[in-house]
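Justification of computing resources. Each target in the renewal requires a structure prediction run like the one illustrated here; the chain below, 593 residues long, is used simply to show the kind of job we budget for.
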Amino acid sequence: MEKPKNSPKKRNLPVADQRIVNYDEEHQRTRKEWEKFISGGTELDEAVIPNEILESWIRCKNYGVNPKKAVINNVLTGNRLQDLQNRNKDLIKISWPFMRHLYKFVEGSGIIVVLFNHEGYLLEIIGDEHVITHARTGNFVPGAYWGEESAGTNGVGTLLKVQRPIQIFGCQHYCRNFHRETGSSAPIFNPEGEFIGGLVMTGLYYKVNPHTLGMTVAAAMAIENELRINKALIEAHVANSYQKTVISSIPEALIAIDNDGLISLMNDNAKNMFFSQNKWVEHKNIHEVFGDKNGEFFRMIEKNQSLIDVEVRIFSDDVAKDYTLTSNPILSNNGELMGKIIILNEIKRAKMLVTKMIGAKANLRFEDICGMNQGFLETIRQARMVSQSNSNVLLLGESGTGKDIFAQAIHNASKRRNGPYVAINCGAIPRDLISSELFGYTEGSFTGSKRGGNQGKFELADGGTIFLGEIAETPLELQAALLRVIEDKSIVRIGGSSVRPVDVRIIVATNRHLKEEVRKGNFREDLYYRANVFSINMVPLRERLDDIPLLIDYFINKHSKIMEKGIDRVDEKVTNIFMNYPWPGNVRELQNV
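Resulting structure tokens:
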């Protein structure tokens, strides 16, 4: 059999190279079967034409592909080519280094390496320059569409159909113009298992090495692995960004330590609370960073248990502050302890948050107080004046005269208006509980005490105002404790020994004659004078009867809205009766009526 002009001479070669010589015979057998098929024959030699090649030929005939076609006409250029490459930029970026590496093995052999996308458009080509120049004559260029509908059976289009490694040898190509070529193709799948493109090594059929397909498959697998790594890195970066955002968004101080106590992570709030920004603390031991004075804190975090909002005092730069401590273990997948997450929230800030959330605030202002009686207006004037001071206030008056309303108005007109407002009726709390209610208690101070202890009303009111209604009902031993709070501006919890500073304005109220209670020995004289820096006498309703019509309108309007009733006035006879009634219960009684 006469050899093609360009075929190599037969030599004693290794087995792999020996097969290259035998490609001539295979090429001729395949060509005969191709000519038979193009001529309309259906009985082909299955030993020569693999089933997947025959299926491709049948598809191409059904597509109406011209087997004598020489040039691919569907080619994207300009902006359309740029758009194609932009849409596939990640695949190109990851594949290019592997294409270059693959080309190094075949450089100078006339074989080129091609990347294409899932649609069959060529994306990148690398190879010997003279080969690429020749390939351009048939529009084998980036942007060209090499699906079977366009180019017949070939290493790009047929791979799109079978989506598995395939080698199209010589005359197995449907179009005669490509019969001298062989394409070795391998698909590329993304980490989700979706087909996104492929690699093909193509060159003259007699220059193909038997390992070419294996090399292509290996490169495609390497690209897939790089895609998985890239996805994992992106996901890790996204997760890390989320983690950083979440950690920086946490208003508390957050610290992570490992089993050796080394700080592995600390958010900005922790640095701001305890350290200067330029002090490097990560990867240092937490004992070294916080110092020897914080033994209580260290004992708590060394417990192998979760802690939730346990109070602890921490010294930073020799200044002691109280915090709530939450600590949770970090466990590995097999349950081994890896470290701890520590969250610290300054109690003063926590109290402000509690105040905001639970409504520990004053709702009423002087503008909300109803009345035009001259004596009553004088009382309001005095209260407004007192509100500008930081001194303690004593409100004296009968039940129902609005002492609690005036206390709220004083707070809202003061410089403490943005701080908490805590009100407590001393006469409504059992004598054995009122101390713990006001001053709080430590864990284990009495049966049934809350784990970690509890804050009292004075601590909750820190930075704001506390209103102690019915102050005359308090027992003498509590009065002594109240006196210490006023004098020292600090409290000691029941069962504890730590002194806790509090910045609180105290407003007290009573419906008794406190001087008489002092004379009887029921109220401490020193407490009376410390609480009575400013005293305001509330006007009883019987001394401001001219306000009754105004108050009637106010309460009718208020309760009609609440009860969804259409009442807008009362009969004049009712008003006259009200004007002649002594109102021992004062405004509260009028409202109830």
